[in-house]
Amino acid sequence: MFSSHLKYLITSLNKSDSQVILDHLLRLNSNDRYLRFFAVVNDSALQRYVSEVINFKNDKLFGIFSSDKQTLIAFAHLTLVEKSGNRIRAELGISIDAEFRDRGLAKRLMDRIVVHCRAHDIGILFMSCLRQNKKMQKIAQRAGMKVLLDHEEAIAELNLVDYGIEKATSISREIAYEQIAIVDKCYRLNAEILNILLKKL
Length: 201
Description:
The chain has helices at residues 2-7, 18-26, 30-37, 43-53, 105-119, 134-142, 164-200; strands at residues 10-13, 60-65, 72-84, 87-96, 124-130, 146-150, 153-159.
C-alpha cells in the first residue's frame, strides 16, 4: 500500500500543465468523453475546455502522473460554483486513462479533494454523471456521497462540516499534500530539462 502511494503521488496542477491536461483528455475515447462531459466532444472542444473553461486562477486541479512522471494518467477538476454566506459549493469532475483504471486512483483523488474542501471551508461537494455511469456512482458512494438518480442523470453530493480539531487536521494534511506536490513538480521539471539536454548531446 505504501509503495503504491509513492508510485502514484497526487500533485496540484496549474496553467503550466495545460498541455499535459489536454494530452490526457485527448486520449479519452468517444465513450469516455461522453461519460465525462455528457456530450459528444471532439478534439477542438477539449482544447477550448482547457483554454477557456478551466479557470486556472480560481479552480483547483489535481493529477496523478505515470511512474516516469511524463504522462498525466488521472485528472480532477474542482470548480467553485456558488457561495452563499459561509457555505461554498464546489463541483468535481474526474477522468482516468483507460489502462490505469481499477487501481484505486479515482478514490485516491476523491480522498485528496475532500481534504482540500474541508481545509478551505467548502461546505458542499457535488458531482454529476450519467445514470449509466455506475462505476463513478460507486466511487462517489464509497467517498460518502449521497447519490440521487433523476432520469438520465445522477447527482452525487457530500456535505462537509468540520469544526475545531477536525478542520485543523485537514489543514495540516493539506499543507503536507501541497509540499509533496511541490517536490513532485520539481522532479518532473528537472527530468524534462535533463531529457532536453540529453537530446542535444
